Amino acid sequence: MGHDARRPRRELSVGEVARRSGVAVSALHFYEAKGLITSHRTGGNQRRYGRDVLRRVAVIKVAQRLGVPLATIRDALKTLPEARTPNAADWRKLSEHWRADLDARIRKLTQLRDSLDECIGCGCLSVETCPLRNPYDELGEAGPGPHLLDPG
Ligand code: FES
């Protein structure tokens, strides 16, 4: 009670969160339906959000730009203490984890791009020889892929 009196933590309406975060009200409702953010209802049945929601929405937006699936973001946010704004150390931990995912996706996309280079001007889209058609290409060096079992 003491520190609240010194510095009251006014809660935010969904419209205020939308304005201050630059995220549409519909997106905020969607995040809430998916369990990424939470609110409580006033007596008049209006949603109210704690101020930590702004930082959470910022984390969600950045993670989405990195291509992190919403379910993964939700699980990560669940590890954060509900009662306070995710701090810089929390963000460092999350972003380090997502950096590894991003690196892995960059590697895969780079491989895919190089495969596409081999295909340009070919157009065969052959199951046997096209690196884009053959999803087991990366296992090729380890032995015959399942595609070889398919008489095609
Ligand atoms: S289109 Fe011919 S190798 Fe991919």
TrEMBL record:
Give the highest taxon in the source lineage.
Bacteria
Q: Does the keyword Membrane apply?
A: no
Annotated InterPro entries: DNA-bd_dom_put_sf, MerR-type_HTH_dom, MerR_fam, Redox-sen_tscrpt-act_SoxR, Tscrpt_reg_MerR_DNA-bd
Alphabetically list the UniProt keywords: 2Fe-2S, DNA-binding, Iron, Iron-sulfur, Metal-binding, Transcription, Transcription regulation
Ranges for domain HTH merR-type come to 11-79
The regions listed as transmembrane in this protein's record are none
Q: Which PANTHER family match?
A: REDOX-CYCLING DRUG-SENSING TRANSCRIPTIONAL ACTIVATOR SOXR, REDOX-SENSITIVE TRANSCRIPTIONAL ACTIVATOR SOXR
UniProt protein name = Redox-sensitive transcriptional activator SoxR
Taxonomic source organism: Chelativorans salis
Gene symbol here is soxR
